[in-house]
Amino acid sequence: MAKNKYIALLSNDVETTSIWFNDLRNETGEKVMREGIPRLLDLYAKYDVCSTFFYTAYMAELFPEAVKMVADAGHEIGSHGKSHIKENGFDVMPFERQKCHLEYSKKLLEDISGKEVVSFRAPALRVAPITARALIETGFEIDSSIASQRFDFFLSFGSKQKLSFLNAPRLPYRVQEDNIYKRGQSKLVELPLSALLMPYVGTTMRMMPSLTSVQQRVLHYESGFNSKPAVFLIHPNEFIDESEQSRKITRRSSNPIAYLLNDLIRAKLKVKNLGDSALPIYEKLIAFYAQKGYSFLKMKDYVRDEFRF
């Protein structure tokens, strides 16, 4: 039987980030476990979706049940690094510290889930060229931190390094051992997140659902042409609502321009359609793929089939 050229890789980054408070909060992590993840799992079960969930080690340590429930539902468990604090960005950590964080999160997630962990996504998509070698040396087979041809408009941490996204290969590729942004012959496969300058992610979907619908159709035509998988990123914290609590936006940067762009402006934009309102918008996106006959795969299954692991 011929392979399906239409593949959707739906991915989920699981952390303690509160979109409402623009900060990391243990209380948010618990709400993600009790409300956000179950809502996602129910939606995926409705459409027979297999997906990949990337956990920070911090979230997994606090709430191991959040990992177990996803593994028990048949989804892939991946690493999202050790924590989501900006000092632990893989674009600023030295090589040995990157390896330490990768080894720690990999072992922890494997111990909790009882499943192998071979896929990685960097917190906030922040990587450096040497992250490729750190991943290879710690036993990872897959990275999904590069968003080819995405431009962040300097509204996210690490946006200067992310300019490398603009020249990264668009189709899945084996990376150079010392440069994750370039095609090479290493054992590590990059699964680029889909983008058309604008990111193809839950935040954009909630803020501009009509634009994301157009983006989805264009990406569908691209898949018909070159069999590029659609790689979408969303967070379980997008399906919880903390707006009953008074809001004060936490300042995460001492730089006034970074504070304006990364904290004030971005934080105010990102709260649109949070909680229950996000579910029908995301279901519409999934239903499109189901109607078009896409296969919903875990990242490791896609890579091991396409790259003959």
How would you describe what is shown here?
The chain is α/β, with parallel strands linked by helices and 309 residues long. It has ten helices and 14 strands. α4 packs across α5. Strands 1, 4, 5, 13 and 14 form a five-stranded parallel beta sheet that branches. A five-stranded mixed beta sheet has the order 6-7-10-8-9. The protein has a two-stranded antiparallel sheet with strand order 2-3. β8 (173-176) and β9 (179-183) form a beta hairpin. The chain is 39% helix and 15% strand. The chain has a single domain (7-306), classed as Glycoside hydrolase/deacetylase (TIM Barrel, Alpha-Beta Barrel). The protein has helices spanning 26-46, 57-62, 64-72, 95-113, 131-137, 202-207, 209-226, 256-269, 278-291, 299-306, and strands at 7-14, 17-18, 23-24, 52-55, 76-79, 119-120, 142-143, 173-176, 179-183, 189-190, 195-196, 198-199, 230-234, 295-296. The protein is globular.
Helix and strand run:
EEEHEHHEHEHEEEEEEHHEHHEH
Instruction: Identify the CATH architecture.
Output: Alpha-Beta Barrel
- Beta-strand level of the residues, as a percent range? 5-15%
**CATH level 1 name:** Alpha Beta
Compute the number of structural domains.
Answer: 1
CATH superfamily: Glycoside hydrolase/deacetylase
Mean pLDDT: 92
Low-pLDDT runs: none
The fold-level CATH name is TIM Barrel
Supply the number of helical segments: 10
**What is the radius of gyration computed over CA atoms, rounded to a whole number of angstroms?**
18 Å
Termini separation (Å)? 20 Å
